[in-house]
Amino acid sequence: MYGTQQVLIKGSKDTRAILEYLCSEAKKLSNCGIYYSRQLFFKTGKIPSKADLHKELGTKQRNPHYQALYSDTAQQILTNVAESFKSYKVIRKKWDKGEIENKPSLPKYLKARSGLAVATFTGRSVKLTGKNKNKEHELGIRLPLGKKVKSWFGISFVHITFPSNLNIADIKEVRILPRNGCFYAEFIYKIESLNVELDKSQGLGIDPGLNNWLTCVSTVGTSFIVDGLHLKSVNQWFNKRVAKRMKDKPNGFWSKKLASITEKRNRQMRDAINKAASLVVNHCIEHKIGHIVFGWNKGQKQNSNMGRKNNQKFVQIPTQRLKERIKQLCEVYGIQFTQTEESYTSKSSYWDNDTLPKFGAKPKGWEPSGRRIERGLYKSRGGEIFNADANGAANILVKVAATLGIDLSGVSRGALSTPCRVRFWTTAKSPVF
Is the pTM of this model over 0.85? Predict the structure, then answer.
């Protein structure tokens, strides 16, 4: 099992120039590998293996971009190209059999606008330097640049900061990520699963949304809402600033200011994802909840039809990335993560034990016992008023309760009526936690 951690590289102009050179050569080498692979596929219908690309561009052609990089780094870049073509072949077979709807396309060349691509160093290539005792020296790592760079520019490595919370022995890869005028070091490291005491008969149902980003209802009698209004505000401000900069500009216009605005917004989104995922998983650990059930319909973003303005707000919220982050954390702590379709969970009444048909399989004459009386409120057959999203989250649990062995007896009326709202960008601790 592997984890990732990104660190913003704050180096000198010389360091930035070296990183820019590395990522520039990485992009050129990637495009060379893509060109060779595409031409081979067009002529023979075959795709090259990673060994074929290493041999063709490294030994036979002696590609200048291959030689401009450390050999291990160049091979890793070509390996990524080979894996992308291998993935295309697998997906194409599934499309031929009718297992997927959209026809895949061959990997395309990297765009020329940025001029940069990811440069990857394997764990065996990097070396730890400096000491962090008494803060006399900054803890860092050396990334090798290869003999050609040393002969051309007189430098053999670049030094970047190493996070103090990681162990160099666990590092598998270090990636230099160019993004919107900034450079990040992404550390891929090995992590071990943690033994946490959990009750597999308890579950947490999650209903994703917009204003209520995540509505969570558990079988231990708790419920909370991860607020999404702040994310909407961030995206609205971002869209206004971009629209102002792009006004009366040609298509494809880009500037340093737009890059800065975009990077700030992306950092805020990544921070929101990590905080929201931690809130959910920590809640499960504290209450010993062994299952997380996430409601998710296939293509719900691509096929959303909520009007132009609401579509823009909904699509820009990174809910799918949040779902994947929660899934990653579940693997670390041993929590079982299940994704299920959420058809009819909003219409049906949990309190009245309504049946939940699958999408496209609604029985003739099926009607829900309750109904939404206004935005955010659901009224059951007996007149009880519940939070509409909490009702949906509880129904998501019902979808898989029998299969997973989840005990629903602990879902309380209070959890459905008054879920606690959590604003994850504040440090205040909610009573539910």
Answer: no
